[in-house]
Amino acid sequence: MTLILLQAIIQSISSTLYWIGLYVGIRALPGDKSRRLRWTVGSATVLAVWLVSVMLLAQTTSSAPMLPAYPLRC
User: Fold this and answer.
1) Which residue, among 45, 43, 46, 42, has the nearest Cα to 22 in the 3D structure?
2) Which residues, 6+ apart, have CB-to-CB distance to 8 below 8 Å?
3) In terms of residue numbers, what domain contains 20?
4) pLDDT tens per residue, range 8-49
5) Considering the domain boundaries, does residue 26 fall inside one?
6) For position 56, what pLDDT does the model report?
7) Is 74 contained in some domain?
8) How many domains does the chain contain in total?
9) SS3 state of residue 43
10) Is the pTM of this model over 0.85?
11) Distance CA 74, CA 25 (A)
């Protein structure tokens, strides 16, 4: 459980740092503010989906051994 929590924390921190770097690069793009805003909102959406999926995968993986196994009958 500790390893999963540590992995989720490290993944969250690295994804956030990656997005901050991407945001700084987006602000340097030439063009309209609307173009930069679309890039910012789009990348923030992708980051949010990524973090939620990592958390869900960590939760699913950590609770899987506790679930009872039911044999399939054909």
Assistant:
1) 43
2) 54, 55, 58
3) 2-64
4) 788 888 888 888 888 888 888 888 888 888 888 988 898 888
5) yes
6) 80
7) no
8) 1
9) helix
10) no
11) 57
